[in-house]
Automatic annotation (TrEMBL):
Species, as recorded: Streptomonospora salina
Top-level taxonomic group: Bacteria
Keyword field contains Ribonucleoprotein: no
Record keywords: Membrane, Transmembrane, Transmembrane helix
Protein name as annotated: Deazaflavin-dependent oxidoreductase (Nitroreductase family)
Amino acid sequence: MTFADPPRTPLRRALYRAPVWIYRLGLGAVLGGRFLLLTHRGRVTGRARQTVLEVIGRDEDSGGVLAVSGYGGRSQWYRNVRADPRVLVETGRRRYRGTAVLLPPRESGRALAGYAHRRPRTAAGLIRALGHEPDSAGRVYERLGADPENGIPVIALRPDT
């Protein structure tokens, strides 16, 4: 089974949305700092939307976190934050208003490669599930991270000051 395409059936969509309900029930802390709930605005409706993302690193400059768009430019949340970067982030017990910043391609590629270096098995599983094959040198992570439309771009979620 791969996750190369977004879920199309109601059951699969419900399974993918289950982590959102964990946060809505006030249990997000059980997921720890490894995941986050991102609240953003729909680019067409303007209504609040939510998705759960994996944290792949910390944004040392701002104190925020780094997340990836597994479906690249096809992800609805990614398209929404490109249109309106104002977001609300909840991770572990921390919650903040912030700005979604799309990392430049080269920096995005380095961030994804760094994640793969820190968590090789998890990163390999992620890119396999998305229909890609990892390599031992890690070049595939840099290449996928640097491609904002067809790859796995990295987004910094920086707290507002």
